[in-house]
Design a protein that fits this description.
The protein is of the alpha+beta class and 424 residues long. The protein has a domain at 117-268 and 320-423: Outer membrane efflux proteins (OEP) (Up-down Bundle). 71% of the residues lie in helices and 12% in strands. The chain has a 4-stranded antiparallel beta sheet with strand order 2-3-5-6. Strands 1-4 form a two-stranded parallel sheet. Helix 2 (33-42) packs across helix 5 (110-171), helix 5 runs antiparallel to helix 8 (245-267) and helix 5 packs antiparallel against helix 10 (378-412). The two termini are 58 Å apart.
């Protein structure tokens, strides 16, 4: 009766554990790299701030564009005269307008439009940094999951090996030292698994915060790194450095200064003033009431060299921005060449590691048989097992490093859409 009650308790415990694990799995949300990047982008406060800045810059453009049109104002006038012989008043109502023709002709408002483009490029830069950060954490987490998986399989094999060593010791064919060495190796593997799990949890904690949902426990969708490393390298003609947002920023900055030179020219063009209205003259000795229309031009003649200084300032800035752009282009071209070289290198390393894996698997299979036959020591068996685990981890690491470099390459060219298509 007691045995039956004990069995019932065990079954209830197992059911409770299964329900708990099912609830845990229900809270886990599978997420791929593209979705993670999109979520992180929508949760990035710097990007949100820059979007508000861009909106403000667009409104400033509309404001500046409105200033290229003539303004219009109503002037109401009254004047009272108190003379010794008599008193009278004069009053008028007229419309007045001033029009800076130069701003209209030279499109001065385009400076504000170009400034909004600079902010837009900064948004793209922040998106690029965000994408690289998320991708880096994503790939590091996948690597930690792989390491845990490999070490767990190794732990399972080591537990089986310990059982064999224990049987051999009791049968008198093996030493107690074999059992102790196996137990020590098991402890080392368990410690390593806990260390990797801790690193993975820290990565996931950062990941959850970045994508903007701390309440969910995300499960990362694996990337088929083995398939990607077997594919041909990207076509360089599809990856232009000129699409990089850091390059674009200096293009927009240089263009803004070019437009500022046009603004200087606009300041030297005439400004038109015109108006008209009705004049009520209460002077009994005057000619009476009348209508009045006027028009005039304001011609800038001498500005003490201000316009020349402004042009020289813009020219200096343009040369500076172009130099900075060329520097970034050079660095990006260096980065492209190095990255392509590293991708080719990872491909070759992957092939060599696959050969090493095959050798390590054969060596481990032989070591298991030889250990049972008493032909090798326990340490030799453990070394064979460890060598196989290490090469498996290195293969996964090489493939994920290849993917990381591939991601860097596409993002540097601002081709995230092409990247996501490739990863699918």
């Amino acid at each position: 009766m007691l045995k039956f009650s004990f069995i019932i308790k065990i079954l209830i415990s197992l059911i409770s554990l299964q329900s708990f694990l099912s609830a845990q799995d229900a809270n886990r949300t599978v997420i791929d790299l593209e979705t993670a990047i999109r979520k992180a982008e929508s949760n990035n406060y710097v990007i949100k701030s820059q979007k508000f800045e861009k909106s403000a810059a667009e409104q400033n453009y509309e404001n500046q564009r409105s200033k290229t049109l003539p303004d219009l104002s109503l002037l109401l006038f009254r004047q009272d005269h108190f003379l010794s012989a008599y008193n009278f008043h004069q009053q008028s109502a007229s419309l007045r307008s001033n029009w800076a023709l130069g701003d209209l002709i030279m499109n001065s408002a385009d400076v504000a439009k170009s400034e909004s483009k600079i902010i837009e490029s900064k948004i793209e830069q922040e998106k690029l940094s965000n994408e690289r950060r998320v991708a880096g954490i994503y790939l590091q987490t996948l690597l930690k999951e792989t390491e845990i998986e490999i070490q767990s399989k190794r732990l399972e094999l080591m537990m089986m090996h310990k059982t064999i060593a224990n049987i051999g010791w009791k049968a008198g064919t093996r030493s107690k030292l074999d059992v102790l060495q196996s137990e020590n190796e098991i402890s080392k593997i368990e410690e390593e698994i806990e260390r990797i799990k801790n690193e993975k949890e820290k990565l996931l904690s950062e990941f959850n915060s970045i994508v903007g949902n701390d309440s969910l426990d995300y499960e990362l969708e694996p990337i088929n790194a083995e398939n990607l490393i077997e594919q041909l390298l990207p076509d360089t003609s599809m990856l232009s450095v000129n699409e990089n947002p850091f390059i674009k920023e200096y293009d927009f900055r240089a263009n803004t200064e070019m437009l500022r030179k046009d603004v200087v020219t606009a300041q030297q063009l005439p400004a038109l003033g015109f108006g008209g209205g009705y004049f009520n003259d209460g002077d009994p000795t005057g000619d009476g009431n009348y209508w009045q229309v006027n028009v005039g031009l304001k011609l800038p003649l001498f500005m003490w060299g201000s316009t020349d200084y402004q042009r020289q300032l813009s020219e200096a800035k343009i040369r500076s921005f172009r130099s900075q752009k060329m520097d970034i282009q050079r660095e990006l071209n260096i980065f492209y060449r190095k990255t392509f070289s590293e991708l080719e290198n990872y491909k070759e390393i992957s092939k060599i590691q696959k050969e090493r894996e095959s050798i390590a698997e054969q060596a481990f299979a032989i070591a298991r048989v030889d250990y049972k036959a008493g032909l090798i020591t326990n340490l030799e068996f453990i070394d064979a097992q460890q060598s196989l685990a290490e090469i498996k981890i290195k293969i996964k690491e090489t493939r994920l490093r290849y993917v990381a470099k591939l991601i860097d390459l596409y993002l540097a060219a601002n081709q995230s859409d092409m990247l996501f298509t490739m990863l699918k």
